[in-house]
Amino acid sequence: MFVKNKINILMISSSSSLGGGTKHMFMLGENLNNEFNVFYGMPKNSNFENYLSPNIYVEISERKLSFIDIFKLVIFIKSKSIDIIHAHGKGAGLISRMLAILTLRPIIYTFHGIHLKCHSRLNKIIYILYEFLLGGLDSIKILVSESEKEYALKSNIFLGKNYKIIHNGVKNMMIKNYEANKNLSNKSLDPERLKVISVCRLVNQKNIKDTLKIAEKIQSLDFYIIGDGPLWREINNIISRRKINNVYLLGEKQDVFGYLYSADIFLSTSLYEGLPISILEAMSVGLPILASNVVGNRDTIENGKSGFLYELENIDMAVCYLKKLSENKILRQKLGNSSFNRQRSVFSKENMVEQYMQIYKNQIYRKKKDIRYIKK
């Protein structure tokens, strides 16, 4: 049951994948205080059934613009007296901007990564033009890292004056016990070998083929990849064809932390990020991080202090860092402790939620102020 004097927020995502964007959306939604009612518009996924009861949820298409969905959302917004639309990601941004025109609700737009690196020159121009033409509909834009903001400005993506950086945050976890290396949280992993773990969707952005190249050069380590996606079959075929015996595709897992606690090093080979939830979760249990030095990744750790950043596609550099970490347990623990402390001080869930709540309240205050001005 929803109280009418609360602020009603509609969270929209055009993707139902178990990625950082949806994790961020639900973490935010379930941690707002009792001043807010939260509703969701997104594609159906059984993994999120606990969040999406019929009275707070409207189903939309997966990564597709549908005018039927727009109509359903307009009806939903009016029937639930939605005050604010919060768009998560590019697809949700387009949908929400159309809704802003039709319903006159303020939009908060969180980018969750600006993806131009893999696009053709024509697609880049179209996207930049699109943001210039429709970006002014956003009441406020949220960027999740400093490097994402710098990339947006460098790429001539319209931000206007009303934008803010709010770092993604994750739940504070207990630190990994480095003295209990043989007492694994997850019994399916080999206790006798050091374990490198990656958590990501199997898509081009995550650059998993470089993970395979790294694994081939350092056979003394086992590499575990948690996640699913359109490249799963291709990656699996490469592993089989090249007989890479130290890489294991685990698919999607609900209990990611069970694997993180059992791992020794976290690896990200991404081409670009916003601010990766997967790295923040690895930091929250005290894992040392090895990550490509790209947008988003470089905001997570302090290079040489809580992990290492290697230059993208420099496989030998990544292998060198992995050998350094694998051969020195004291170094792994030292960097892991630093990553743990950095997550708590910079990337906590509580800090993230508090900043979003203030933005929601500010939007309602401005809306009421504008209404009073019009009446005068």
Explain what you see:
The chain is of the alpha/beta class and 376 residues long. It has two domains: 7-169 and 348-375, Glycogen Phosphorylase B (Rossmann fold, 3-Layer(aba) Sandwich); 178-346, Glycogen Phosphorylase B (Rossmann fold, 3-Layer(aba) Sandwich), CATH 3.40.50. It has helices at 20-31, 67-79, 90-103, 121-134, 146-154, 208-217, 232-241, 256-262, 277-284, 315-326, 329-346, 349-375, and strands at 7-12, 36-42, 57-59, 84-88, 107-110, 140-143, 163-165, 195-199, 222-226, 247-251, 265-268, 289-292, 307-310.
Approximately how much helix is present in the residues?
40-55%
Q: What's the rounded overall pLDDT mean?
A: 91
Helix and strand content put the structural class at alpha/beta
Q: Give Rg in angstroms.
A: 21 Å
Strand fraction: 15-25%
Number of helices: 12
Low-pLDDT segments, ≥5 res: 372-376
Succession of helices and strands: EHEEHEHEHEHEEHEHEHEHEEHHH
- In the CATH hierarchy, what is the architecture of the largest domain at level 2? 3-Layer(aba) Sandwich
Main sheet: strand order: 3-2-1-4-5-6-7
The CATH topology of the largest domain turns out to be Rossmann fold
Shape: globular
Give the CA-CA distance, first to last residue: 35 Å
Count the domains: 2
Q: CATH first level of the largest domain: which class?
A: Alpha Beta
- The counted number of beta strands is 13
CATH fourth-tier homologous superfamily of the largest domain: Glycogen Phosphorylase B
